[in-house]
Amino acid sequence: QSDYQGVIFPGMLSLMPNQFKRDRASMRFYCSSNVSDAYIRSVATRVTELGDTTLTTGNAIKYLGIQLFPVEYLPDDVIILTNKNNLVAGIQRAMKVYSQFNQKKDETEYTMYMRVDPGKILWDDALVIAYKITSSSSEIDEVDNNDSGSVTPSTPTVTTPAVAASVTLKDRETTPVDCLTVTAKSAGADGNDLSITIAAPTTTSDELFNVVVKNDGSTVETLEDCSMDTSASTAYIENVSSTYVSFEDISTSGTNETKRPALGTYSLSGGADAVTA
Fold first, then answer.
1. What is each CA distance from 219 to 6, 194, 244, in whole angstroms?
2. Which CA distances in Å does 179 have to 4, 136, 163, 174, 238?
3. Which terminus of the chain has fewer Cβ atoms in its 10 Å neighbourhood, N or C?
């Protein structure tokens, strides 16, 4: 049976940077139900009050104050350690709402269309993933049902995921503020070779701009006549299709003209390859 207490959980926790360990009440070990049950069984073998209550109460089980959180469909050989607030879902601000009165039901039905990013990690450094953990229900049952059986404890492979390079641009207000975040589509150190140039639009307009994407100094893509106008359909910057980067509109005020990113060339940075221990 895998040694969660002696190898896996402490190994994962040791790779978590200290600044993300303080709020342990909000941290979670996301794992399969089989892994959670296996850990409960290992704690329940203690001839202590904790062992008895763990097996009989069904309360949430913890390791060093961090709760184990079973997740449906998560494989038995994968465990994720992070703060629960580090996993978010994003809802784009451009929404459309339609209504229709249903006479038979005597009620008004509303239909809403919006863009949703179902999963986002706020801080990549605050995420540790262990995988290839050789523990399963069949192994546990074999040990339980056969006193002569044995399972060699596994040593997990713990990975700090790759980080995508990015850059945040300022707008054209009198006092410039952040308006646009550009992120490499492929995580890793190679994203640091990317840069973007905000240039004058191809079509004469006070609300448009071009984006030139370069890789290691060579132009690989030119995105013409982009806009910060959320109603501009395919021209709206978040809807513009790029092979190399993605765009996030973070502007909070101003007109479509002043919200445009300032002219200039900007290098992406902060990209890092995955680290396996």
1. 51, 10, 11
2. 45, 48, 22, 13, 12
3. C
Distance CA 165, CA 182 (A): 9
| Sequence letter at residue 63 | Y
42-82 pLDDT, tens digit per residue, is 776 655 555 455 555 556 788 888 999 999 888 888 899 99
* Residue 54, helix vs strand vs coil: helix
CA dihedral 25, 156, 45, 81 (to 10 degrees): 10
CB 98 within 8 A of CB 111: yes
Q: CA-to-CA distance for 56 and 22, rounded, in angstroms?
A: 30
Rounded to two decimals, the pTM is 0.50
Is residue 239 within 8 Å of 246, Cβ to Cβ? no
Interval 164-202: pLDDT, tens: 899 999 999 999 999 999 999 988 899 999 999 999 999
Give the containing element (helix H, strand E) for 166.
Answer: strand 166-170
